[in-house]
Amino acid sequence: AEVAALKTLVLSSSPTSPTQEPLPGGKTPFKRGHTRNKSTSSAMSGSHQDLSVIQPIVKDCKEADLSLYNEFRSWKDDPTMDRSCPFLDKIYQEDIFPCLTFSKSELASAVLEAVENNTLSIEPVGLQPVRFVKASAVECGGPKKCALTGQSKSCKHRIKLGDSSNYYYISPFCRYRITSVCNFFTYIRYIQQGLVKQQDVDQMFWEVMQLRKEMSLAKLGYFKEEL
């Protein structure tokens, strides 16, 4: 009995366990103030730690593929527009052909030929009202139908191939694929003609890689549309 009484005395006088006067009916008084839930606090601190783990600081990096780099250097020593050379053949297979493959295959082949010959022109549809467009142009798609895909799309541009009098209406998606290929050809023509004088071979290589990147994005369906 004395031991039990001593335990009761120690517990009631402990500063960490203040005594509480019971209310009538056996109820204990309501504690004022806020007590943080330990499990919630732990979860919150844990979530901050998780964020620091799953969101590392990153930076854009690049490293030249030696095979591609050597092919480019060999091509630059004797630049040619012959698609059978190793440098251009790989780009044709991996980027150019996929970019210029459309459901209207015959027209797609004509587009590639015009791009290679530098005889393709693109112009906004708004330069010429529809009512003044020749019948032949209307037959090659229209402002609401893409001539390359045959799909009903809003066409803000049209293309003309060589000396043909026909205009072909193209969707923004098709236009971006065509222009990405045109930009590549324009740059390598400049190199072939000796017009790129402000860049060394490394800078030229990375410019070619950037242009290939644009073609890769275009063939995967990513494009920029003029608003």
UniProtKB/TrEMBL annotation:
InterPro entries membership: RAB3IL/RAB3IP/Sec2
Protein species of origin: Neovison vison
Molecular function per GO: guanyl-nucleotide exchange factor activity
Polar residues compositional bias, start-end: 38-48
Signal peptide annotation: none
Keywords per UniProt: Coiled coil
Region (Disordered): 9-48
GO annotations of cellular component type: Golgi to plasma membrane transport vesicle
Any Gene Ontology biological process: exocytosis
Descriptive protein name: Rab-3A-interacting protein
Top-level taxonomic group: Eukaryota
Family: Belongs to the SEC2 family.
Pfam family, one: RAB3A-like_C
